[in-house]
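Schema walk-through. Below, the input block comes first and the output block second. Nothing else is stored per chain. Lengths vary across the set, and this one has 305 residues.
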Amino acid sequence: MKISRRTFLGVSAASLLAATGESIEAKIPKILKSEKNGDSLKIKFLGTGSAGGRGKNGLGRRHSSILVDDGFLIDFTAESGDMIPEGVHPEIIFYTHSHKDHFNAADAIALGIKKVYLSHTWYDIAVKAFKDAAKKAGAQVPDITPVYPGMPVMVHGVSVLPLWANHPTEYAMEEAQIYLLEKGGVRLLYATDTSGIPGRSARIIGIDSHYPGYGITALIMEATMGVGHDTDFRMFCHSSVAMVERTVTVLLNTKRLHLSPGEKVYITHMSRSLHGSQAELDATLPAPLQAAHDGLEVLFTAPEE
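--- output ---
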């Protein structure tokens, strides 16, 4: 039986909505404020570099990856493995997208990852990669769960909300993701890789001033391009220091970013060729921006308001 493209698209959309438990009429929830219970959220930057990584000479920044509350990872390659604290053995990982500086099935299996979360848009690709890697290593395939934008997952007491990023990959249907991490009164947006923050994600997060929302209490955002590199061709897929600065200015002006006293906004995913040294970054970045570095550990707390 032949099926028209219009019919196919209609059936596909209906099937997806049924699978996710959503409906056409579902509306974005109004997030006004998180409950404050004194919790804090610990982030360790295992890597803060872009695709170039450390390079053959071993210098520079490792591939971007974070460890959350010593319990789970967002992105990981073996290049950042030496930054995991001794005695800490994360078994859960969330991936932002399939690019090899963020996703490596063999590295995850070698690390002992048992549970994987990633966008439903490249689930089949990931399953194949993990099956191939597991077979080669003589190991078991981790449990791989597809996630959907706007549908949170609770892991180790942290709500992990996947959202849309503005970052294409080689797969036409893949949607890269950014994540909102929430624990008590802490609402941290981890935004890498992405060119700015897409409007539909901003609305769900609560930072779109057209829509009721409390916003966020902390921000980690990629700045692949450094100061003076706003015209770099990577602008369609990545953010610059200037873009992060503008984002922070808008969020502060609209009272959608509630920083604790002395807290910084951290930039990550920095290109070796488009940024100076850590000392140069520390001396030139405008407040409240600060360049993260490999191994940096930050404890985010809810602001007293």
